[in-house]
Amino acid sequence: FTTNPNSQHNLITIHTLKNLSTTNTEFIRTSCSATTYPKLCYNSLAVHATKIQTSAKLLATTALDVTLASAKSTSAAMLKLSRTHGLAPRQSAAMLDCVEELGDSVDQIRQSIDELAGARTSPAEFQMMISDVQTWVSAALTDETTCSDGFAGKEMAGEVKTAVRGRIEKIAHLTSNALALINAYAALHN
pLDDT tens digits, residue range 57-69? Predict the structure, then answer.
């Protein structure tokens, strides 16, 4: 029977990594508890715990990344659906309007991610940057709501309305959570 001198070191490393992982996921859970949709927030971000660690900036940026991916995917699906034969003219028009609104939302989220990535040396520069990001993410949320509103009314009833509104609602909830996390990040610098 021989002992590996590294085995204890390996156990310590595994234990340390487990503790770090727990710390990271607890940071995400705690941060998400202050959002409007905490369960969605945690479920969408916990898989990125290793990347986020306990950084409010990385948490906000990752929330925007997740939102961007969801918005792009939904926009592509809606563009495909808008070309489906058999849609009523009003449904088709609402779908195309929604694709345009989502395109604007994607641009604003992408712009926010790029802005957050920039280096800020002074408090004034940080405040200007965070103000821009808050404005763009709020505008993205408005665009998503406008898209969903296009499917209101009885004449828009049916599977298309249900499918579209469900996907748009998820993006809007992700965007709302991202904005709350951005606001929390901003509050750390005030």
Answer: 999 999 999 999 9
In the chain, the domains with their CATH numbers are 5-187 (1.20.140.40)
Cα 89 vs. chain centroid, distance in angstroms? 32
Q: How far apart are CA 123 and CA 103, in angstroms?
A: 32
Put simply, whether the predicted model's pTM sits higher than 0.70 gets the answer yes
Q: Residues with Cβ < 8 Å from 165, sequence gap 6 or more? A: 148, 151
> What angle, rounded to 10 degrees, do the helices at 38-45 and 56-82 form?
100
Determine how many CB atoms are found less than 10 A away from the CB of residue 96.
15
CA distance 48 to 176: 19
Burial call 79-90: b when 16+ CB within 10 Å, e when fewer: eebbeeeebeee
Q: What is the mean pLDDT of residues 71-82?
A: 89
Q: How far apart are the first and last CA of the chain?
A: 60
